[in-house]
Amino acid sequence: SDETSPVAAPEDRDAEATVRPKRLAEFVGQERVREQLEVLLHSALRRGTPPDHILLSGSPGLGKTTLSMIVAAELGSGLRLTSGPAIERAGDLAAVLTSLGTGDVLFIDEIHRIARPAEELLYSAMEDFRVDVVVGKGPGATAIPLDVEPFTLVGATTRAGLLTGPMRDRFGFVGHLDFYEPAELERVLRRSAQILNIEITPDGATEIAGRSRGTPRIANRLLRRVRDYAEVRGAGIVDLTAARAALKVYDVDPLGLDRLDRAVLRALVENFGGGPVGLSTLAIAVGEQPDTVAEVCEPFLLRAGLLARTPRGRVATGNAWRHLGRTPPSSLAP
Ligand code: ADP
Q1: How far apart are CA 113 and CA 333, in angstroms?
Q2: Which stretches of the chain drop beneath a pLDDT of 70?
Q3: What stretches of 163-270 show up as alpha helix (H) in DSSP?
Q4: Is the ipTM above a cut-off of 0.95?
């Protein structure tokens, strides 16, 4: 079971659309980014011009897609959604760009994965609202300049550091989304429960929030799991008893760690004596891409104080050993 993976599962899609905040005022937490965006959007509205391009970085499930939708809603603009991996050729991107209406918001998820030729086309569109589309091949090839309506690009990335310098420089606004505090996740849960007509007690919300990996997507998914369990086994109320029993059935880790988090910690401790070990070696040990380990898994393990990065590689902390039910080596004690 992988109930606490921060990556969206197909079954999440409809459920997420229902509880997704529609306006900035409904968006829980992330005070800094929210306030900065509010100023950016309202000054653009006052001037009557599209705001600067916006880059949002942060782990999966923290609200990047939601914020792009909110940006369009606050501006009263149209919204187009696409992703870096979906744009394979420059022509794919040119087609999207030239079909935008004035002031539209274009959301590109995983923008760091955009193909190189498309990336260069995007530069001129972002800067000059113009693209050169190359027609034909070889000596007969001609570049046809096409106008693009003024638009706002909202790019999302799991790590801003993965973006090329020229790409990063073209964003006038860069916002970083952090993991949510348990109290913020409780607010997310109370809000979702209200929308979904679920009765939730304060201690039920606390229990789920503490095991949601700092991630609203996971909190909402666990809420649905506990609700299902409570309906079948209990009085349908999401309280502490139902939460504890359901999260046990779904094998949700007490700290909210998902399958990959646990595999990484176990490999570190069991195969490498706690480290230090390099990222690529660790990734091979758990059968994952180094990028996935670095982008999806490590930020939370670092934040939870279970993993540390040292110049010589990754090391498991004493808490990681204890979480796996083992005694840390004396060098890490207490
Ligand atoms: P990302 O694009 O960063 O992977 P999403 O924007 O798709 O994440 O968010 C995942 C889900 O989590 C959304 O459906 C939304 O319901 C919920 N969510 C994310 N951020 C918030 C927030 N700040 N307040 C309330 N719900 C949120």
Answers
A1: 42
A2: 1, 333-334
A3: 165-169, 182-195, 202-210, 216-233, 240-249, 259-266
A4: yes
First to last CA, the chain: 32
The DSSP code for 200 is B
To the query of whether residue 215 is one of the catalytic residues in this protein, the response is: no
Candidates 82, 79, 54, 63; CA nearest to 175 is 54
What pLDDT, on the 0 to 100 scale, is given for residue 334? 59
The residue contributing the CA closest to ligand 1 atom 6 is 63
User: pTM (2 decimals)?
Assistant: 0.91
Q: How far is CA 241 from each of CA 200, 228, 233, rounded to the nearest angstrom?
A: 11, 14, 11
Active site residue 217: yes
Concatenating the DSSP letter of every residue in 71-114 gives HHHHHT--EEEEEGGG--SHHHHHHHHHTPPTT-EEEEETGGGS
Name residue 192's amino acid.
S
Q: Tell whether the torsion through CA atoms of 290, 292, 297 and 300 is positive or negative.
A: positive
- Cα–Cα distance for residue pair 126/165, rounded to 1 Å: 15
**Rounded CA gap, 332 and 334, in Å?**
6
Does residue 280 contact residue 255 with C-beta atoms inside 8 Å?
no
Is 215 marked as binding a ligand?
no
